[in-house]
Amino acid sequence: MRCSLDCASTSCAFALTAIFGFVTSCQDAACSAVSSAVKVPVMIYLDHNATTPVLPEVFEAMRPYFCEEWGNPSSTYKFGSKLKAVIETARAQVAELIGVRPTEIIFTSCATGSNNAAIHAALN
Question: Can you give the residue range of the structural domain that contains 20?
Fold first, then answer.
């Protein structure tokens, strides 16, 4: 049986439960039974400065790029280069959302990259 977390089996949900004390978005009866049967303290995560959980709708939108369509968008091979259009679409959507030009949106991979980009922009 597959759970709504799209696990291969309830063992994945069991592992999540054992680590975190809960399965946040599983609606499957088998997973719910597993999560209620495990008696582990609920973890309280206080380091959202470092990383935060991904909203389910964000995960669903990104699922193809995590699993099937990953690649280097700057590459010359077709598998990666077709992703450049996906990134440019995302850039345009973010720009429209906050009312700026797409060229003003810079995606970085981490806080350090973001901080360096901001410092560099401020100095120029």
Answer: 1-48
| Count: domains in the chain | 2
Do 99 and 66 reside in the same domain of the chain? Answer: yes
- Tell me: the pLDDT tens digits for 12-45? 444 444 444 444 444 445 445 544 555 556 778 7
Is the pTM here over 0.85, yes or no?
Answer: no
Based on the domain organization, do 69 and 95 belong to the same domain? Answer: yes
Q: Please report which confidence band the pLDDT of residue 116 belongs to, taking 50, 70 and 90 as the band edges.
A: very high
Q: What is the rounded end-to-end Cα distance, in angstroms, of the chain?
A: 57
Residue 40 and residue 71 share a domain:
no
Radius of gyration of the chain (CA): 19
